[in-house]
Amino acid sequence: MVENVNSLVQFLEEFYQKMDESVEEEEISFDKGSLPDNPYIILKETLNKIARNYNHYKTHSESIPSDMYCRYLNYWLRQKKKIYDATFQGKHHQKFSQKIMEHFPPGKTDIYRNLQQCNIVNDEISYKISKIRKLLDDLYYVKKKLGGKDTIKKNKNICLEYNKYIYDTIYNIFIDIIPLGEDFTLKNSDFIIKDVYTQADLNDLFTRIRCEEENMPDANQDKLLTVGECTPDKCNCTDASTFLSVFVTFLGSVITLFLLYKFSPIGTWLYNRIRRKDKIINDLNNKERKYELEHNYNNSFLNSTSEEYNMPYISINCE
What we know:
With about 325 residues, this protein is mainly α.
């Protein structure tokens, strides 16, 4: 079967979704001890899924390298860690990774050793950063599986599919970044997966590939161009690919500007300038309103004191 973008993306999605599916038969159980009910349930479920997921990985080890499975395992475990930590509502508790290693049976030697090799959830990467890195990890995997830039650009259909996948990835990263808010700051290093790609590779990863056959007429087009005709039913136009290229370029520019504004020193400087300008305008408006109120009050007071009061005299006769 010839690999293409859609089949590779679908494979990765199904593999990752399988990691969180329910376990039909539990292999691992442990004494609840002092653990509250909810953390115990989450931890027990996670341990059983770890055992199942390792077997799932071994089945697909030809397609999923061991280092990538470790990253996938950590992406998934950070999601579980977020849920586990939330059950304690800010109270001090033992680290999620420590609880996993404490209760996972060492008798399952291969899986236990794999957990040690994968260094599970042992860094300070947040779940939010983890989600972004997984998107980049998948994009890098697909590009590598397709043979890299030089191979991709030679096949028009695959090249156009891959460029669309770049757009989809950028869009999904953009969607993940928007809700982070001003309190959450992203650094360049947050987008880098150590020992997988560098900053230069990341820039290349986001760059649209120029397809060699994108603007080349096929044999039928060549014949039609020779006789000077191009009928609607025979002409293989490239409007769709041209539009996609323009759209991806435009979206990439917008997202680049957004990232510069939100996370770069230039963006911080510009943001502070805008806030300072708004503050000055608000102060001026407040002073102007205060002056108007005082002026109106003084005028009304002066008018009231300078006018004569005419009080009518009403005679009251008591009979």
